[in-house]
Amino acid sequence: MTTHSLKQLTRITLDMQAPVARIVLNNPPVNVIDIPMMEELAAALTEIDSHPEIAILVVSGFGKRFSAGVDVEAHTPDKVHEMLAKFHGVIHALINSRKVTIASVHGNCLGGGAELAAVCDLAYTSESATWGFPEIKLGCYPPVAATVLSVIVGQKQAAELILTGRSITGREAANMGLANRAVPEAELESALQQSLDQLAKLSPTSLSLAKKAIYVWDSIHFHKGLARAESIYLDELMKTQDAREGINAFLEKRAPVWKGK
């Protein structure tokens, strides 16, 4: 069975050409992950998983960047519960997908965008890409990264990235294990294609079961850990003055004034 389908939605492009499906984040100018994009991503992941002839999923960003992260405006009290539920639904769908998931990263890969890339099975990045989890600068923290990052890069590295919010290059991301390879941006598609060529020769069923076996232990902790990180975020962090101040300051384009409460 041959599948070839191209869909241009309002926030993403979905291109399925068996055995590879490609999702391109396409929300100019910085590919912000807003609630409509989350809904399109969830629907696309469900559709991709329904096609047994699709073995591999590539996630990339349109234009000059991967993604600047989740929409800050969606962190306001009236939207934050819906935002977290839908974004974490996308994360769960990526992790639970039977397909081999690959992030192809260039430009900015920040916040929720970096979380999307981090939970993919494989990641290839341009050396000059900018990775980071800057949520702490808004008085917040990244729940997905707080749950998975120490497994990927080690506890000390994860703590530094989350607690300082510092950015790193694609080369640094690869060196610490956040990405598989870092290459010059002009060679990124070639590096990705080499991986696709290798995977395309293999059994989709065997790849799916091997992936399931790789994560069988970690997935038990991930689902519980993310639920706990989400609970702290909603029930504790979002009730603090500093979290509200950080978000408001960002939206008002001013420096935050922290109260420590």
Task: Explain what you see.
The chain is an alpha/beta fold and 261 residues long. The protein has helices at 35-49, 80-96, 112-119, 143-153, 155-164, 170-175, 188-200, 204-214, 218-235, 241-251, and strands at 4-8, 12-17, 20-25, 56-61, 100-105, 108-110, 122-126, 130-132, 167-169, 181-183. It has a seven-stranded mixed sheet, sandwiched between helices. Helix 2 links the parallel strand 4 (56-61) and strand 5 (100-105). Helix 3 crosses helix 4 (143-153) and helix 4 runs antiparallel to helix 9 (218-235). The longest helix has 18 residues, at 218-235. The radius of gyration is 18 Å and the shape is globular. It starts with a strand and ends in a 10-residue tail after the last helix.
**How does the overall form come out from the CA principal axes?**
globular
Radius of gyration: 18 Å
Q: Measure the end-to-end span.
A: 59 Å
Strand order of the largest sheet: 1-2-3-4-5-7-10
What is the average of the pLDDT values? 95
β-strand amount: 15-25%
Q: SSE order, as H and E?
A: EEEHEHEEHEEHHEHEHHHH
Helix content: 40-55%
What key phrases describe this protein's structure?
three-stranded mixed beta sheet; 46% helix; globular
Characterize this entry briefly.
The chain is of the alpha/beta class and about 260 residues long. Helix content is about 45%, strand content about 20%.
Question: Helix and strand layout, with pairings?
Answer:
Elements: E1 4-8, E2 12-17, E3 20-25, H1 35-49, E4 56-61, H2 80-96, E5 100-105, E6 108-110, H3 112-119, E7 122-126, E8 130-132, H4 143-153, H5 155-164, E9 167-169, H6 170-175, E10 181-183, H7 188-200, H8 204-214, H9 218-235, H10 241-251
Parallel strand pairs: 3-4, 4-5, 5-7, 6-8, 7-10
Antiparallel strand pairs: 1-2, 2-3, 8-9
